[in-house]
Hints:
The chain is built from three helices and nine strands; from the N terminus they run H-E-E-E-E-E-H-E-E-E-E-H. The chain is of the alpha+beta class. The strands form two sheets. A seven-stranded antiparallel β-sheet has the order 3-4-5-9-8-7-6. Strands 1-2 form a two-stranded antiparallel ribbon.
Amino acid sequence: MKHILRKVIAIATVVTMLAAVPAMDAQAAVVKYATYTNTRFTYTVKYPTTFQRTDYSSGDGTKLVSKDRKAKATIWNSYGKTGKRSGKTVVATAKKNRKINVEKATKTECSYSYKIGKNTIQYCYVFIKNGEIAFQLTYPTASKKYYSAAAKGMMASLKKNK
């Protein structure tokens, strides 16, 4: 009888654990955002509230580090490059240097990523009439679901600056 009871408890434990995994994955993709506003160049970008922010003293952008210090990001802008770069040219240059996964590459925006060790590096650019606004996000590949969602939200907020 004890043998059967142990099997039932073991099966119930496994079923409970398996049922909890999708719930944890669903929660991992929920991202809450704060807003970085660059007053010098008048643009805004949303970033995950799990990051702590340190603005550059020059006013050119900001650095972000996750509270657990496992992920980091940089948001920046470049002005005066009108017509010299596009999403397609940025991706073409990146492809020369490493194997990348291209999510999007158009004249006005691009997004691509690559892996180094246990980390994923994500770049996103939006090209505006007088320059570009971009971010680079580095995160543990094991946390891809959360940070991919974070990158999509950040990219959507970049596009609003066009």
